[in-house]
Amino acid sequence: MNRSVDAGLGEPNSPSGFAQAVDASLLARAQHGDMAAFATLYARFGRACYGLALRLSGNSAQAEDLVQEVFLKLIETLRSYRGDAPFGAWLKRLTANAAIDQLRKSKRFVDVDPDAMFDGASAMQSGPAQTLDALALLRRLPPRARAVVVLHELEGHTHAEIATLFGQSESYSKSILSRGLQRLHTVAKQREK
Amino acid sequence: MNVDNDNISLAPSLRQRIAQAPAEPPADLWARIEAAHFRRVRHRRVRRWTACSVGVVVLLVGVVVVSPHRASLVQSGEAEIDWQARAEALELQWHALDSKQGTSGTPTWNAEPAEVELGDLDRRLQLAYERAARKSELAALWKHRSELLDSLILARKQGLVLTHI
User: Fold this and answer.
1) First-last CA distance in chain B
2) CA A176 to CA A113: how far, in whole Å?
3) Which chain A residue has its CA at the smallest distance from B9's CA?
4) Which residue in the set B1, B9, B19 is minimally distant from A181, CB to CB?
5) pLDDT, tens digit, for every residue of B7-51?
6) Which terminus of chain A is more solvent-facing, meaning fewer CB atoms within 10 Å of its CB: N or C?
7) Cα gap A152→A99, rounded to integer Å
8) Which chain A positions have a beta carbon within 8 Å of B19's beta carbon?
């Protein structure tokens, strides 16, 4: 199942998100440390990268930090990119890994037990005055559940991939996804009433 | 906990809402990234320069400390010669000549004065060992002994009387 919606501009499989092709010459220039080439890469992929970071972190400040971290890492590691995977897919993986690393570092990642995780999440709910947009919906989820839902439902990751990213089992990923989706649907229905 | 989620997935409308949510990075984000990159590069350069400077200082200190010691070793290159081993080898050579002379009949030279000096030197060496003398003192005695044996051997070969060296 591949439901990737290429979270960038929001258009499913839009060529303007991570799915954009990149000229070999542009990559070669960037691989030689040409900052103008990196600026071009940012102009093309910065928004997709920020979109994914925002969905995964649920927080604009964290998303900005993530994008900064990802592009700094890109500048330093692009030389090691061999082109085995499309550049956009590579960058997307870099972003997901950075977001999960950030989750690991934060105290909120401590709750490994799904029950404890979802019980604690009630405190993270938005206030009644807050506009419940799509991102606010995601913010209703505990950080790890949000990441699992985004990676599986929007980015097309398999449970095996998510399990590897989080260092957990596939059944754990399935369990978190199931509970996360139930929570999202419940909140969405409440808003529709 | 094992929850079967095969039948549950994000409702298409919800997926679309989330996917289409506006996500516009701040306009100055790239400028901040670039500035952070140049800051990192500068810090790394400073760190490298500092490490190089420390390395050079350590090297210079090493040269300053080690050089005089090394120079003194070079100057006293003789100290590196094993005078004891040399003296022992010469003694074997001398005894070999002595036994040869003994079989050939009339002695052609008189080594008595030098042999007395050799005996005296042996006593001094013995005393030096007993009072745990410094290596340099022992080396000087062994050197003296080597030189005396050298002279003895040369004199015996030439049939001369050795009185003193």
Assistant:
1) 102
2) 9
3) A181
4) B9
5) 577 778 778 878 777 788 999 999 999 999 999 999 999 999 999
6) C
7) 15
8) 5, 7, 10, 12, 154
Long-range CB contacts (within 8 A, 24+) of B113-122 = B113/B161, B113/B162, B113/B163, B113/B164, B114/B148, B114/B151, B114/B152, B114/B155, B114/B162, B114/B163, B114/B164, B114/B165, B115/B152, B117/B148, B117/B164, B117/B165, B118/B145, B118/B148, B118/B149, B118/B152, B121/B145, B121/B148
CB neighbours (10 Å) of residue A55?
25
In this predicted structure, the answer to whether residue A101 has a pLDDT above a threshold of 60 is: yes
Q: What is the pLDDT of residue B96?
A: 81
- The listed range with the strongest mean pLDDT (A7-21, A51-65, A124-138, B104-118) is A51-65
> Tokens 């009630």 label which residue?
A122
Name the residue with tokens 């003694």. Answer: B91
Using the beta-carbon criterion (under 8 Å), do A47 and B25 form an inter-chain contact? yes
CA angle A103, A104, A106 (to 5 degrees): 65
Here the ipTM equals 0.76
pLDDT reported for residue A177: 92
List helix spans (H) across B7-134: 12-19, 29-75, 83-103, 112-130
